[in-house]
Amino acid sequence: MTASGKSDPPLRRSLGQHHLRRAASASPAVDFLEVSGRTVIEIGPGGGVLTRLLLERGASRVIACELDPSWAFALRRRLADRRIRLAVGDACDLAYERAPAAARIAGNLPYNVATRIVSRVLERAPVGLRAAFLVQREVADRLTAAPGDGAYGAMTVLTQTRAAARRLAVVMPGSFVPPPAVTSAFVGLERIAPPIDEEEWPDFKALVRTAFTRRRKTLLNNLAAVMERPAAAAAISTLGLPPMIRAEALGLDEFVELFRVC
User: Fold this and answer.
1) What is the pLDDT of residue 12?
2) Which CATH number does the domain 13-191 belong to among 3.40.50.150, 3.10.129.10, 3.90.180.10, 3.40.50.280?
């Protein structure tokens, strides 16, 4: 099944529209989501390839949020299924906190807003909810990296504070209409209870981002830019870490411990 036909609206580069050609590309993501009998919120359904697969796998309802009204109309014309609910609007503005934990979220995300949408979902969606997103492979690598990996950074730590993350499948440019200039990947996320209280989240986020401000600098030097150097050194020593350690060597548990002593 292909993503577009002669009567379909044009794809708009400004909206980052790269539609999947075939459902097989999304199969690993739908396997992860286990959608049978569940409500699925789909972000950017586009040509409906993923939408159709979700329905075929037994989703009880698909709430499809499409920013482009012309493609929302095209999807309605293509898939006359009573289980589809179409919403024309920006997925960045959805009230993810209202989604039940048993729901699922899926989407082929535009590259320019992918990290923003992922962050909003993880900060607002309830514990237990699963999501699978198609993003630029570089972003997927950052979301799923381990300490010491080249892709490991602030985005990794902040994501894994709120979700168990894993890469599900790589999707090559030829799997899209039109083909993007980069390789993509599906990433699976399952919301977990964070080790940080909600009221502490802004401060924890600031600490993590500060720790990775300059990757070539030590953790001490980065922290010393926003707090007294002796206090930063004492915090690192309290954790039993070497003074020359860099942020990319710390796991999530160590960042939580560092936050507690700073």
Assistant:
1) 75
2) 3.40.50.150
